[in-house]
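Example record

The entry below shows one chain as it appears in the dataset: sequence first, then structure tokens.
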Amino acid sequence: MAVFLFIAGLTGAVISWDHELDAWLNPQLFSARSGESAKPLSPLALARQVEIANPRLLVSYVPLSIEAGHTLMMGVRGQISADTGKRIELGFNQVAVDPATAAIQGARQWGAVSMTRENLLPFLYKLHYSLHLPKIGEDFYLGLWVMGVIAIVWVLDCFLALWISFPNLASWRKSFAFRVGQGWPKMNFDLHRSGGVWTWLLLLMLAITSVSMNLNDAVMQPLVSVFSPLTPSPFDARKPSPDNAPIKPVFSREQILAVARTEADKRGWHLPAGAIAYADRYGTYQIGFFEPAQAHGDGGLGNPWLYFDAITGQVIGSDIPGTGTAGDIFMQAQFPLHSGRIIGLPGRILISLMGLVVAMLSVTGIIIWVRKRRSAAKNGHAQNGHAKHKRLPVQAS
């Protein structure tokens, strides 16, 4: 478990800053060649032009604001081939579009097993929660289950660790102390025990939210629903169509966005529409409402979203942070807590540091384990040798 948590801890410390690091590493994907002074097209017009110029693909996600001098990063999927009747394998699922010319100036497969500059941050992000283990069959994601089961053990281990960290009440202060200057073995032990005690609540929070991130449907939702009912999502009530038979929308992105703006106004929302996505296997549009600087949901429980039927244009659901049952709000808090974004920049800094703490606890724990194994083996050999030595006179006589 320590090996897996070491990987998760180090990658977690890095991906707390994935967007910033990604933009720094890959200016060719994030800086528009046309420059800041060029007049951009609207995001939806750019999406249309990209699909017209590239009939093999469907734009599945469009941010609805463009930062001056930056590209517009869109999510894409392959269309269905008229020759084979199967979805076209594009070899990429993100495109960086120059907002003034609609030219694709870069593309990548998010989550590919690759250490190139373009793929490094997505590679680390996916490594964090799945180890890049393959999917088995249609719906069994091996990596999610491996890391999810480890997270469950981690939750239980948090309580076991707390128990053994306080062997007796009389010496409780020792469990918070660090014996500096008394040799590396003692310091290593204190880093592991006292370091875990000081950060215990945060470690438990990371462990619980890790279960939610990986085994949400299989474990966390059924468990939470025992204590509080959960509101089904629009996707729960819909059976996805086969991958080679996606649902073609009747309403265009422009039309559904106008419907969404009317619905948002009825609800008293004054936030602009920040992004639109289309799930072609469900025939469902999703529109998020947030300011351009809040695309990643920093602060609070995230951004509100509305869901629409692409055939009828009707509202079929919503995801509004801070509303619903107690169970709904608990589930809404899982990613904001796990990422630290629930309290904005300070939370991200804290979670990044906690990633390093998790890695440190993993290493110090293994060192303690190895030392105890060696000590036990040495004592065992010594006892065997002592027993043989005591028998020798008897055998000689």
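Notes for this example: The first strand starts at residue 57 and ends at 63. The chain is about 50% helix and 15% strand.
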